[in-house]
Design goal:
This protein is of the alpha+beta class. A seven-stranded mixed β-sheet has the order 2-3-4-11-5-6-7, sandwiched between helices. A three-stranded antiparallel β-sheet has the order 9-8-10. Helix 4 links the parallel strand 3 and strand 4. Helix 1 packs parallel to helix 3 and helix 1 packs across helix 11.
C-alpha cells in the first residue's frame, strides 16, 4: 500500500518528526525543506528515507537539534561557520546571505562549515548559491566507506561534491555526485530488504565486487571510475575534512548507526561571481550547452531532476504506507 503526499505534506511530516525527536524550529525548518526538495527531485534515499536517520540521531545525540551556529570572517573573502555538531543545513542557512554578499564584493569567496553532520543532498546548497547568480562548488566529507586504491578496508567517505551554474531563463545547471558509484544508503536499504545489488556498487571485505548487499556493507563502496573515484574522495576529504573538519573521513563516527558521538565532519564551499571574471560568462555557457545538446540523446546534467520536479508538482509523492506510519511515529516521540 502507498500513501500519497503533496510536497507541503512532505515538509510538514518532516518538520513534525524532527520536532518530535527534540529538534527546535530554527534547525527543523531547513532540514525539512531539504527533505521536501529531495523528494521533489526524486532523490528519496536522502529524502523521506533518510528522515528516520535524522530522527534516530537526534534521539541518541549524534546530532544536536538545538544549537545556534556561529560564524566569523577569518579572511577578507573567507567565512568559517561552526555547526556545533548540529545540522549542516542550519549552519549554511545562517550564513548564506553574508556569504553571497562577500562573494559579490570580492569576485570569489570560500565558506567552511566545521563540527558538522551529514549534509544530505549537497546540490541543495549550491543551487541556492546559483539562484543568487553565483557559480558554486561544494565538498562534503563523510565517515569511512571507500577503500584506498589497492586496499580493501573502508577509509574515505562516499564524499560527494557538487557544482552549480546560473543560466539564462532556466533553472541552474547542477552536477551532484558522490565519489562512489552510488550512495551508501542504497546498499543499506538493499541489505535491509534482502535484495541483491549490482556488482558495480560495492566490494566485499576482500576487495572483490559483490551482489550481496550485506557483504558490501562489511567491505567497502566501489569508487566511481576506479582509482579516479578514490582520488576524488581524497580531494573532497582535504577540502571538507582537513580545511573544515575537524574529522577526516577515516576518523569520523558512522552516519549509519547510533553508536559513537557526533561525526564532526565538514563542508567547504567556493563561490564565484562570474561577471567579475567575464560579463558574458552565462552567454558562453549557454552556447556550450546548446552546442552539446544538438547531438541525439544528449542531456544536461541535472535535467532529470528538473523534469521530476514538474512530475511531482502534478502527481505528488507516493510513499509506502509502512514507511509513512514509521515516520508519523517520530512526530510523537517527545510525548512518549
Amino acid at each position: 500500500m502507498e500513501t500519497s503526499l503533496t510536497l507541503t505534506h512532505v515538509y510538514e511530516l518532516s518538520f513534525n518528526a524532527l520536532k518530535g525527536c527534540g529538534c527546535d524550529d530554527v534547525n527543523a525548518i531547513p532540514v525539512a525543506e531539504s527533505i521536501r526538495d529531495a523528494e521533489a527531485d526524486g532523490i528519496r534515499n536522502v529524502g523521506l528515507n533518510y528522515l528516520s536517520h535524522y530522527c534516530e540521531h537526534l534521539l541518541c545525540g549524534k546530532v544536536d537539534g538545538n544549537v545556534t551556529p556561529e560564524w566569523k570572517r577569518i579572511a577578507p573573502a573567507v567565512i568559517e561557520a561552526d555547526a556545533k555538531h548540529g545540522f549542516a543545513h542550519s549552519a549554511f542557512v545562517a550564513v548564506v546571505e553574508e556569504f553571497v554578499d562577500l562573494v559579490k564584493q570580492n569576485g570569489i569567496g570560500a565558506l567552511q562549515i566545521k563540527n558538522s553532520y551529514a549534509a544530505g543532498v549537497i546540490g541543495w546548497y549550491v543551487e541556492k548559491l546559483a539562484d543568487q547568480g553565483l557559480v558554486a562548488l561544494a565538498f562534503a566529507n563523510s565517515p569511512p566507506a571507500i577503500a584506498p586504491w589497492g586496499g580493501a578496508e573502508a577509509f574515505f567517505g562516499t564524499n560527494p561534491l557538487a557544482f552549480a551554474c546560473p543560466r539564462n531563463e532556466a533553472p541552474p545547471l547542477i552536477i551532484d555526485q558522490s565519489s562512489s558509484t552510488t550512495a551508501k544508503v542504497n546498499v543499506v536499504m538493499a541489505a535491509h530488504a534482502g535484495e541483491t545489488i549490482p556488482n558495480t556498487w560495492a566490494l566485499d571485505k576482500f576487495g572483490n565486487p559483490t551482489t550481496d548487499a550485506k557483504a558490501g556493507l562489511e567491505g567497502s563502496m566501489a569508487p566511481s571510475g576506479g582509482y579516479k573515484g578514490v582520488a576524488l574522495a581524497m580531494i573532497v576529504d582535504l577540502f571538507a575534512g582537513a580545511l573544515a573538519g575537524p574529522n577526516m573521513s577515516y576518523s569520523a563516527p558512522s552516519f549509519g548507526d547510533n553508536i559513537g558521538g557526533p561525526p564532526g565532519v565538514g563542508q567547504f564551499f567556493i563561490g564565484i561571481s562570474p561577471e567579475k571574471f567575464n560579463p558574458d560568462f552565462i552567454g558562453k555557457a549557454e552556447n556550450m550547452f546548446a552546442a552539446m545538446c544538438v547531438q541525439d540523446g544528449v542531456r544536461l546534467p541535472g535535467s532529470r531532476r528538473h523534469a521530476y520536479r514538474a512530475k511531482v508538482a502534478r502527481e505528488g509523492v507516493h510513499l509506502p504506507t509502512a514507511v509513512y506510519q514509521k515516520l508519523l511515529a517520530y512526530c510523537d516521540k517527545s510525548k512518549s
